[in-house]
Amino acid sequence: MSVQQRPIRMKTLGKGPRKVLFVGGIHGDETEGAYTTDELPKAFLDANLADAVTLTILEDVNPDGRAARTRDNANGVDINRNFPANNFDQSNGGTPLSQPESQALSATIDRVQPNLILVMHSWAGKEFVNFDGPAQEVAERFADIAHLPVEASSEFAPTPGSLGSYTGRDRGIPILTVELLKGSDSAQDWERIRTALLQAIAG
Ligand SMILES: [Zn+2]
């Protein structure tokens, strides 16, 4: 449950040995990934991936932020800066994993032990795929299929305590961040990234 007691919903599909964690949203004012999150379960099953992959979908890690249309959670903390990464700093307030939303995501990662994490975000003025950890190849293939540029995290902004810093850089779990264009047409986005997403999930 979130700070304001909204449920953080999770869904598991398939029963394959490859584990993939998909996170539909973590910044409340970046809702562009919601449509893709809704469409993904059917596409996953239609692609016959259920025997090869166990797909865990966290619909939205920040439901309070989404309800209030804010980047941060109800305590004013950026969930994506609240992970116990080596580069954590207190500029965003609090201590690592001080928020129920980051705790829920962290516990899910520990339980699922994913081979790949995919996270949906959006960005004003540009769209791209970003990665942390050993995910350059996955990112490049994704970008190729979806016709998006790849940017390494270090190229655009410091991200202390981010999910990517924590899981990708520190724990060595490949993580792909899909930055859709803010305000874009979600149905068109889905058509464009669908194949790339399924390829990444299939591995
Ligand atoms: Zn974001």
UniProtKB/TrEMBL annotation:
The active site is at 179 (proton donor/acceptor). Residues 65-101 are annotated as: Disordered. Residues 1-203 form the Peptidase M14 domain. SUPFAM superfamilies: Zn-dependent exopeptidases (SSF53187). Pfam families: Peptidase_M14. Residues 83-101 have a biased composition (Polar residues). It comes from the Bacteria. InterPro entries: Peptidase_M14. Belongs to the peptidase M14 family. This is DUF2817 domain-containing protein. The lineage of its organism: Bacteria, Bacillati, Actinomycetota, Actinomycetes, Mycobacteriales.
